[in-house]
Amino acid sequence: MGIYAATDKLPARRAGGTPIKVGSAALDTSEISLVKVKKVIKQTLAQLPALTTVAVVEVATGNCLAHVSRLRGFDPATVAAHHAETVRQQQQALAALPGRAGRLDDILIPLRKQLHLIRVARNGRWFVYLAVQAQDTSLALAREVLKSIIV
Amino acid sequence: MAYSTNTPAGKAVEAIINDLPGLVAVAVVDVNSGMALASHSNSPSVNPETAAAYNTEVVKQKQKAMSALKLTGEKIEDILITLTNQLHLIKLNAAGNKFLYLAVNARETNLAIAREVLRTHAEEIN
User: Fold this and answer.
1) In this structure, which of B26, B50, B54, B102 has its CB flanked by the most CB atoms within 10 Å?
2) What's the CATH number for B8-125?
3) Which ipTM value was assigned to this complex?
């Protein structure tokens, strides 16, 4: 697969060429398997090679379990907690709605030049945070890729 | 039914279903986001929203190829994709910001009919 556009700003990189940084302390305390977390990140990298950031975050604690970032000097762990708070607030809002509103699937944040997506796992305990350049990927494509990986 | 007949996109989808009742899938797609404005599928295996997202990349890459080849004054009218058993068609509107995506069974519909149907409804999604 690998539908993406090589741009001047972001040269094409081999999928998996970027090391996956694992927050081992965070993983020790969570019940989410490292194998699964790594697999999710690898699959996302393979399908969206031009992505800028992908991270797996635990909803309850806001701990970043693993991440890959192509932005120099940017640690996704610093924003992971804020995104986790967004997810928790939205889950609470859904719980407060009358009737059964259903499960939170994803949150899409289109910025002018970037797209940020949050896809919550089926069990609602962890989510994937993805950031891409808008010129590389469309909102729908990024969403479909995350949907195919996190069923 | 993933469309509302109150919108132009939904009306176009409804009209295409009327013209080609045996179609596999149809969608009106926004090129910028790749999101389907209206869609319908007669096959459980074809998700028109997934098809919309990936086919948007096809359109965008072709537009990039054309600008790389400096084909000024040209624009994509339609893209025809022949599969073993299916025909997939993409028809852009005049502005080039939306397109109709149609998948039909090759045994039931021929290319000329499918293309003509899309041509008649392309103006409705401007």
Assistant:
1) B26
2) 3.30.450.30
3) 0.70
